[in-house]
Amino acid sequence: MRIIIEANYDEMSKKVSKLIAKHIFYKPRTVLGLATGETPLGMYKELVSLYDSDLIDFHDITTFNLDEYLGLDKDNPQSYNYYMHNNLFNHINIPKDNINIPLGLATDIAKEAIDYELKIRRIGGIDLQILGIGRNGHIGFNEPDIKFEALTHVVKLDNQTIEDNSRFFDSMDEVPNQAISMGIKTIMRAKKIILMASGIEKADTIRDSIYGNITPTLPASVLQLHPNVTYILDKAAASKLDLHKTNIDLL
Q1: Phi, psi of 44, deg, nearest 5
Q2: What distances in angstroms separate CA 201 from CA 65, 135, 154, 242, one per listed residue?
Q3: Using CA atoms, how far apart are residues 41 and 36, in angstroms rounded to an integer?
Q4: Listed residue (88, 73, 78) closest to 32, CA to CA
């Protein structure tokens, strides 16, 4: 495990975007796993800037998003399909056929989950997976007590997650209570993982996920078992880490 601490959110976003660009430079056909939410917005802005400056090319990139709300049409402004196109895909040269996001309105949602998982496997898996982290430790929409062996599946959202995401909706009642998400096992199969977090409200969760017990009650703790994971944090999110611990590489 490596930990990189940046001064603030903007510097964290720039660092992640540069690492993605470096990965693509060395492997133009990279398969990217992408996250949504508030944390990656700055990173996507930086990636668009790098593209506009001809410093990154997405033509041969394939992407798989972590998750999508159930019950939302892909054109709904609160859907993650809309989020991704609005913040990244509409501004770069990635072919539409290379974009993969679960369908929240699939007729057979169980089949959608299986087909999504198989598509990831057929392409050879995720080369670089970008993660955020919820205050309850979820990665993707894998909530506390989720089975670590879970593949892409339907999840019931935790009350904490619904409350946290309600700021993007007009009311709490409008927040979907289910989603389709890559499972922990799917995420752990990625060859390389970058988890990004910012803000003091994430500090306890970051500390516990790095130093605490590996337990489904804190899904991100399983990343301690991954052979190539990097946490990229701003100072606030890293503020409760014990930097004298010897089981990490601090950069």
Answers
A1: -65, -40
A2: 25, 7, 27, 17
A3: 8
A4: 88
For residue 82, give every residue at least 6 positions away whose Cβ sits within 8 Å of its Cβ, in sequence order, or none.
74, 75, 76
Query: Would you tell me how many other CB atoms lie within 10 Å of the CB of residue 25?
Result: 12
As a whole number of angstroms, the distance between CA 107 and CA 38 comes to 29
For residue 58, give the H/E element and its range: none
Calculate mean pLDDT across residues 22-44: 97
What amino acid positions are annotated as catalytic residues?
Answer: 67, 136, 138, 143
- For residue 21, the surrounding DSSP H or E stretch is helix 9-26
| pTM exceeding the 0.90 threshold for the entire prediction | yes
Residue for token pair 């988890």: 195
Tokens for 84?
């991704």
Cross-strand bridge partners of residue 31: 62
Q: How far apart are the first and last CA of the chain?
A: 11
Measure the CA–CA gap between 226 and 202, rounded to whole angstroms: 21
| Amino acid, res. 53 | S
In this predicted model, what pLDDT tens digit does every residue of 226-245 receive, in sequence order? 999 999 999 999 999 987 66
Q: How far is the C-alpha of 165 from the C-alpha of 112, rounded, in Å? A: 24
Q: Reduced to 3 states, what is the DSSP secondary structure of residue 39?
A: coil
CA atoms 122, 178, 66, 240: torsion sign: negative
Instruction: Give the integer Cα–Cα distance in Å for 145 and 148.
Output: 9
